[in-house]
Design brief:
Aminopeptidase i, Domain 2; 31% helix; nine-stranded mixed beta sheet
Length: 498
């Protein structure tokens, strides 16, 4: 209003004099009113939400935790997602499908999944797509993992960690084994040891403080070498004094009795080491969730639920749950593979269009939320954040304009036009949201799937749940933020582009 009231020729100094004069004539009580009108403030979910939303946040978190406890690997995440989809009358996409369905999905190599639901507008108008990843930092078994330490005569499993873990966090905690083994004849054997009632667990045995003098002087990143991640696996020798490595043989014999496998079968296996504990309520008020793998299954689960629970969407809706994000989105099950583009092309053809003519148009008109978590301010490590531009736990889903490192290297830097539309959408539907970035400039940084999806000329921004202790075996989220993420994704599907 100030600018509109002044002719174009009025100088900057004259403008300031006008403002100052008006301020002096304004009662002091107007200051707070003006501050509330003009200032941006993050809003605490528990303060501003309705009683119904607060109750829904707790119920939704319980459902989320049940999913997390059963989805500790990428393959299990896909299997559980497919079960949920089938229960909601979604069917696999096939060109000759005549089944009346709520929507369609496709699974790629059992490690990622794309889901489609038609909107009110034709697909040529574009799609609303949420992409998240279902791989998480972990430790994997090597291809020839089982060994017997000659000095201690203990059976150990040799490992190779996956993604950005802090190795010391994985020492001396209970661990489970999950994965698949394919025998030479193609038989698949599912492995799950450690989370079932009566199962043994495993661990990486840490060094006692009495003998840790030399290790205490090391940097925290160097205190645990990768070759120290040797999984304690067994200690009873096979009763035969004529052979060597009797503990290893006893372990192999147990595995053969239980699963029918030999040592060579590990070469065609994919077995992951994950924490052997379930999701927990955190805090005396039970307002937070502590769980393994919330980066990024919190966004995966909320995106899938949002698509299934939304009213008829404005544009066609797609959820893409990808693999390999934690190692740079390499490989044919990652966001950089052609899987999602082929899926969209087949959807276009399935709906009666020539995908060779409109695929690029559909991609250009597509709006994408890169559903990935971000780092909330940790009360114990506040110094790594610039507080004015950092998300807070309990203050809603976070819109992150850019990630990357230093000078935004390796980032999709979202356009302000797209952000403005999302602000308006979230505000008009009372979505609790905030903005933030990943730590202070030059302190560190990280990347997401966003930049790879932007290569298709779509509009993309990171939008996800803030976490504490990200990449640790026990990550912390707010139930209010989980529910806010779900609501934001649901509203995005229902109304964006409508």
């Amino acid at each position: 209003m100030i600018w509109a009231a002044l002719p174009p020729h009025v100088t900057w100094r004259a403008l300031l004099q006008k403002i100052y004069k008006r301020n002096l004539m304004t009662k002091s009580s107007k200051g707070k009113e003006l501050q509330d009108k003009l200032s941006y403030k993050k809003k605490n979910f528990w303060k501003i939400s309705s009683e119904i939303d607060r109750e829904n946040a707790f119920v939704f978190a319980d459902e989320y935790c049940a999913f997390m406890d059963d989805a500790k690997t990428e393959r299990l995440s896909v299997e559980l997602s497919e079960q949920i989809l089938k229960a909601c009358r979604f069917v696999p996409l096939a060109s000759d499908s005549s089944t009346k369905a709520s929507g369609y999905y496709r699974i790629n190599r059992d490690k990622n999944i794309a889901v489609f639901r038609a909107g009110k507008k034709d697909i040529s108008a574009g799609c609303n797509l949420i992409v998240a990843h279902i791989d998480v930092p972990r430790v994997d078994l090597k291809q020839v993992p089982l060994s017997e330490d000659g000095t201690t005569q203990l059976g150990i499993m040799l490992t190779h960690y996956y993604g950005g873990i802090r190795k010391y966090q994985w020492m001396s905690i209970p661990l489970a084994l999950y994965g698949v083994i394919f025998k030479e004849d193609g038989t698949r054997i599912d492995i799950s040891i450690g989370d079932n009632d009566g199962d043994p667990v495993f661990t990486f045995a840490d060094l006692l403080p009495h003998l840790a003098k030399d290790y205490n002087d090391k940097k925290i990143s160097e205190a645990i070498d990768a070759d120290k991640l040797q999984l304690l696996f067994g200690s009873i020798p096979f009763p035969d004094d004529e052979i060597k490595d009797t503990v290893k043989l006893n372990c192999l014999n147990i595995l053969h009795e239980k699963f029918g496998i030999t040592e060579e079968d590990f070469i065609s296996a994919e077995i992951e080491i994950v924490p052997a504990f379930s999701s927990k309520d955190v805090g005396i008020d039970a307002s937070m969730v502590g769980a393994y793998g919330q980066d990024d299954r919190v966004c995966s689960y909320t995106a899938l639920r949002a698509l299934l629970d939304s009213d008829e969407p404005a544009l066609s809706s797609i959820v893409f749950l990808a693999d390999k994000e934690e190692i740079g989105s390499e490989g044919n099950t990652s966001a950089r593979s052609d899987f999602i583009i082929d899926f969209i092309a087949d959807i276009i053809e399935f709906q009666g269009h020539d995908n060779s003519k409109i695929l690029r148009k559909v991609l250009t008109n597509t709006n994408i939320l890169s559903g990935d978590v971000t780092a909330a301010i940790n009360p114990s490590f506040k110094e790594v954040h610039e507080h004015q531009n950092a998300p807070l736990l309990g203050y809603g889903v976070c819109l992150t304009k850019f990630t990357g490192s230093k000078g935004k290297s390796g980032s999709n830097d979202a356009h302000p036009e797209f952000i403005a539309k999302l602000r308006a959408l979230f505000n008009s539907h009372n979505i609790n949201w905030q903005t933030g970035e990943l730590g202070k400039v030059d302190v560190g940084g990280g990347g997401t799937i966003a930049k790879f999806m932007a290569e298709h000329n779509a509009e993309v921004i990171d939008c996800g749940t803030p976490l504490l202790a990200m990449h640790s075996p026990f990550e912390i989220s707010s139930k209010g933020d989980i529910y806010s993420t779900y609501k934001a994704y649901k509203i995005f599907f229902e109304h964006y582009g409508g």
